[in-house]
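Here is one such tokenized protein:
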Amino acid sequence: MLGIGAIWGLIVLIWPMYKQFIPHQITSYLAKKANKMIGWIFPYVHIKFPEYIEEGLKRSERYDAIRNYLSTISAADVKRLKANESKNSESLVLSMDDHEEVEDTFNGVKVNWSSNVKEIQTQTQSDSGRSTTDEQRSFTLSFHGDHRNAIINTYVDHVLKEGKAIGLRNRERKLYTNNSSQEWQPWRAARRWSSIPFHHPATFDTLAMDRDKKERIIKDLEMFSKREDYYRQVGKPWKRGYLLYGPPGTGKSTMISAIANLLEYDVYDLELTTVKDNSELKKLLLDTTSKSLIVIEDIDCSLDLTGHRKNKKEEDEEEEGDEKKSKGDGRQSKVTLSGLLNSIDGLWSACSGEKIIVFTTNFVDKLDPALIRRGRMDYHIEMSYCRFEAFKVLARNYLEIESHDFYEDIERLLEEINMSPADVAEILMPKSDEEVADICIERLVKTLEEEKEKVRKLAEEEEEKEAEKKTKAEEAEKRKTEEEENKRAEEAEKKKTEEEEKKKAKRGRTVTFLQKMVSAKKK
């Protein structure tokens, strides 16, 4: 009887001839029969759940849900565990380490979960010609084929539902910022965004703004968050745009934090200047989760997105200039206005739901109307200078008072003086433990009065400058008039002299003629 070594040697000898001389139709048929036979011997079904889906463009939410679920059953049975954080989780998740297995039972049916990892070689964008080793992770669910329907139709849904619930219980909101594409991996969405826990304390209760205005904004936000079915019914992506505009220090960033805290959303702070082109922008937006705010602050300064769209000639000239610049700077952003519009409002905007897009700007008039039209930026919110209603909120926040003897003076002064809520808050903030509310309020009144005096002096100086300018203009006009009158007088005198000269010459010619006539008669 042949030994195992001899059998393997025979297989090694025969296999190349089999592949070379046997027609592929026969090999395909034999492979099908072999797979069917293996299925009879090993009647198990395997389902793979990769960490990244859609050709690596997006992290799988199912993978995170499965990891959360398995963390509850693997901690007691698996010897090697991996401690990490689930996405948006503030609790430590103990999951199976790589190449570990765990068994689960559902309605009397036993299933097996395994954690897999595959190393791949990838080319880095920053180091030309060099490759790095990266890892593709996945979970594999294995079960007997007799229970296919029960596992696929019931158990998988149960796992995903339980895993999602665990993630929600441990959820911690995050603040994300986009990384340079040089840090991306070409096959997956890893490292496109970096994040830290989001713990900003701002709420609408502490936001310095008119109460009625705040209530309208809150109502609009809450209405949006509850209208998934309505958006589907009218055929629109479940998203909404907010434009926050106003001078610096008026609370635009604080408003963003208040919105995130009200709706319990993650915040994606998108820095357009680090995005290489429109394609990268789409990939970044695809890698954002639902229930999130996508924020582009100071959009008027981010890229050339101001003014009206250029005509073709201007675009061609600008492209030539960009080509020259790109030779010296390979990281120059080529995100265009049309690319941004398509990303936030085109077909790609419908890829994931429940998102709010927020633009902020200090100069709304500079933005292209196409960028901020209704439908893209649905709600325009003016963040104005501090007025009395906003001041009362700040006084309650910083000094814990509801009224004061100086409130009437402050109300009058705030109507006359433009001061940002940030400046008012800084003045109201106690500078030591000994400073009481009276001192802070008096400091604000004094500052407002000083600012009013500055404004008055500036106005007087402007009036003096205008008066001086007007006087100079009048004097210049007077000199001009006098010069014109003198010029006209000189021209009239010159004309008169010329006419007298002409008359004198004419008389001279007449006398000469008469003299000639007399001389002729005498002859």
In short: Residues 307-315, 321-330 have pLDDT under 50 and may be disordered. DSSP finds 16 helices and 15 strands in the chain. Residues 388-478 form one domain.
